[in-house]
């Protein structure tokens, strides 16, 4: 499936964001993750769990059912499942077959998010979760706020591509967070196991429209713009603004610092979830950013959905005329494809 090999969709052995932790409580929440129905909820002791969202009897959606204690009672025929997926009651018969169950998935609360592992549960290593210090979430002078959860009508990799090529800021977001230097500045890329890092250092440039509107800059500014892709699904950004090094009265003085977090989770082959949060220097400003950033995220969603429509119109794997600025996005695609290839190879070895 574009832009991957035929038959490739998404890595399964990796941590994906299923929800913001604050959004899951004693109400059943339905998700479709990697083309599988999932239900999220918290047990009475507060522990968050994830189980399959389809009753194996007549395929009724368990997210539309009832939570009783720590169990889900199917709303169609009353078949009851525990938090580990085991069936504990079938009202129409006395005997409950041991094989009668729904899937249960590893779910970990880490930072702002609940992370789910859809692949081999024995491989669900929490050491593979993004380090909270590395992504800036624990910085003492920054305040994190979850902002948006969107279900987007496009394949997940279109949003990943968008976040891996920040030259689009200069055009798609020219009225808010972008300037032409986002496209012109040299990109520095470093690759690590399951992490791809990008940085642009912009010197003595005009402030972004958003910074100019806040009136916090005196003339030209320096910027650090970057994104760290923690495979398979979290992009941890950097957006730091300083008084220009050419300003003799305040060079290097911080104007605004932010850490935006974009989590992209595959849903179906043509849809995905997009979870956005941000950390800023001012706790009040982080919450005030909600109204300002909603149109910015909508621009990214609009572009990705329109590209999805065009790909569907073209059909198959339409060719691309690549640019130098695509280097980071191509690396990201290759790293994801390598994860999928490794899973296929392991499955073939196990079947042999």
Describe this structure as you would to a colleague.
The chain is of the alpha+beta class. The protein has 2 domains: 15-123, Rieske Iron-sulfur Protein (3-layer Sandwich), CATH 2.102.10.10; 131-344, Naphthalene 1,2-dioxygenase Alpha Subunit, Chain A, domain 1. Helices cover 23% and strands 33% of the residues. The protein contains 6 helices and 18 strands. It has a 7-stranded antiparallel beta sheet with strand order 12-18-17-16-15-14-13. A 4-stranded antiparallel beta sheet has the order 2-3-4-9, with no helix packed on it. Strand 7 and strand 8 (87-89) form a beta hairpin. The longest helix is centred in the C-terminal third of the chain and has 32 residues, at 283-314.
CATH topology grouping of the largest domain: Naphthalene 1,2-dioxygenase Alpha Subunit, Chain A, domain 1
The number of helical runs is 6
SS-derived structural category: alpha+beta
What is the C-level CATH assignment of the largest domain? Alpha Beta
Which strand order spans the largest sheet, edge to edge or round the barrel? 12-18-17-16-15-14-13
Shape designation: globular
| Proportion in β-strands | 25-35%
Q: Radius of gyration over alpha carbons?
A: 22 Å
Domain module tally: 2
The multimeric state of the shown protein is single chain
Helix content: 10-25%
Biggest sheet: strands, sense, closure? 7 strands, antiparallel
Per CATH, the architecture of the largest domain is Alpha-Beta Complex
Q: Tell me the series of helices and strands, N- to C-terminal.
A: EEEEEEEEEEEEHHHEEHEEEEHH
């Amino acid at each position: 499936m574009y832009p991957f090999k035929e038959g490739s969709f998404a890595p399964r052995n990796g941590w994906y964001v299923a929800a913001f932790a604050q959004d899951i409580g004693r109400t059943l929440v339905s998700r479709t993750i990697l083309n599988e129905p999932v239900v999220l909820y918290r047990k009475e002791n507060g522990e968050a769990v994830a189980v399959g969202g389809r009753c194996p009897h007549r395929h009724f959606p368990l997210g539309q059912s009832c939570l009783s204690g720590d169990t889900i009672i199917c709303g169609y025929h009353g078949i009851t499942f525990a938090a580990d997926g085991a069936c504990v009651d079938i009202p129409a018969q006395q005997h409950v077959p041991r094989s009668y169950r729904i899937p249960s998935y590893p779910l970990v609360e880490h930072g702002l998010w609940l992370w789910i592992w859809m692949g081999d549960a024995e491989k669900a290593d929490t050491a593979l979760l993004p380090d909270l210090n590395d992504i800036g979430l624990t910085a003492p002078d920054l305040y994190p706020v979850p902002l948006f959860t969107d279900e987007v009508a496009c394949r997940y990799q279109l949003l990943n591509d968008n976040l891996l090529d920040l030259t689009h800021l200069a055009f798609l977001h020219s009225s808010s967070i972008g300037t032409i230097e986002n496209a012109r500045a040299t990109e520095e890329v470093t690759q690590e196991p399951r992490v791809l890092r990008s940085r642009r250092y912009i010197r003595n440039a005009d402030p972004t429209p958003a910074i100019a509107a806040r009136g916090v800059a005196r003339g030209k500014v320096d910027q650090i713009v970057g994104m760290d892709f923690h495979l398979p699904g979290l992009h941890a950004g950097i957006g730091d603004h300083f008084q220009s090094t050419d300003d003799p009265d305040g060079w290097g003085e911080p104007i605004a610092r932010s850490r935006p977090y974009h989590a992209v989770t595959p849903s179906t082959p043509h849809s995905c979830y997009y979870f956005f949060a941000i950390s800023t220097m001012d706790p009040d400003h982080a919450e005030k950013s909600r109204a300002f950033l909603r149109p910015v995220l909508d621009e990214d969603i609009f572009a990705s959905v329109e590209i999805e429509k065009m790909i569907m119109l073209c059909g198959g794997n339409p060719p691309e005329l690549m640019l130098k600025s695509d280097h980071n996005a191509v690396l990201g695609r290759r790293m994801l494809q390598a994860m999928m290839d490794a899973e296929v190879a392991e499955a073939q070895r196990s079947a042999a």
